[in-house]
Amino acid sequence: MRTFIAFWNILKKDIKNYYLKPPNISWGIIFPVSWALMQIIRSQNNIRIIELLPGLMAMSILFGTTSMLAVTITFERRGRYFDRLLLAPIGLNTLVFAKISGAILFGVVNAFVPVAFAAFFTDLSGINWGLVFIAVLLIAVTSALLGLAIAVSAKEVFEAQTFSNFFRFPMLFLCGLVIPIEELPAILKPISFLLPLTYGVDILNGTIARISAMNIIFNILMALTFIIVFFYICQRNIKKRWIL
Fold first, then answer.
1. Which residues contact 142 (CB under 8 A, 6 or more apart)?
2. Which of 56, 140, 165, 201 could serve as a FRET partner for 112 with CA atoms 20 to 30 Å apart?
């Protein structure tokens, strides 16, 4: 019960203090929404909108979650609030999970902003929303852990955002989000399979646009593998940089 109380209070504090910070609004909401509107307005038919929707959802999650962690972690490190959490009588796993939970929720909400806009332009019936939610959740968790790993190495918000862009923008073009994997140059295809976003995007493509390059079960297993690896890396970096 004490663990749950600690988890809930950390999550509630992050939601209250950080959700509407300028970096989150600009990168997590305005940028994906503007991109979604631009692409939907340019689209000439329903099929085109359906094909764009998985990429827009994935981009909204990616930018929303990483921006969220960049703000929460760097603000608290600069104000030394995170030091108090490290001294609190709670496990490190609980602390890490509580910090990323707010970013995950933020990313999940962002994912359905393009869906709301697309619903005015095309018929979204027939989509398996259960699989869509699984894909959204997997992308949100992997993106949040990636954002945490980046934020651990930064001292200021602008540094965290710069480091995040170093990973985010290449992934836009290498994960099948904008350019299908099969259309990438042969030298770049192996890189796309080393990026966690590839597998979540492929699930969304297969579920929404009916265009999938890999098996859904394989995509889920690979995404779960990345989650485990990123969680371990985040734990190790926190212990190395903040505790020892």
1. 196, 197, 200, 223, 226, 227, 230
2. 165
Is the distance from CB of 230 to CB of 145 less than 8 angstroms?
yes
Burial class (CB in 10 A: 0-12, 13-18, 19+), 220: middle
Cα gap 52→36, rounded to integer Å: 9
32: helix, coil or strand?
A: helix
What are the distances in angstroms from CA 220 to CA 14, 128, 141, 205?
Answer: 29, 15, 12, 14
Q: Could you state, in order of their start, the residue ranges of all structural domains in the chain?
A: 2-243
CA 130, 198, 220: angle at the middle one, nearest 5?
40
pLDDT in tens, 163-215: 777 778 778 778 877 777 888 888 888 888 888 888 988 898 888 877 887 88
Picking from 225, 226, 217, 222, the residue whose alpha carbon sits closest to that of residue 131 is 217
Average pLDDT over residues 131-145: 91
- What b/e sequence results for 91-119 when a residue is b if at least 16 CB atoms lie within 10 Å of its CB, and e otherwise? eeebbbebbbbbbbbbbbbbbbbbbebbe
* Of 15, 34, 37, nearest in space to 26 by CA: 34
The whole-number pLDDT of residue 36 equals 63
Q: Are 52 and 210 in contact (CB under 8 A)?
A: no
Complete DSSP assignment for 33-44:
HHHHHHHHHH--
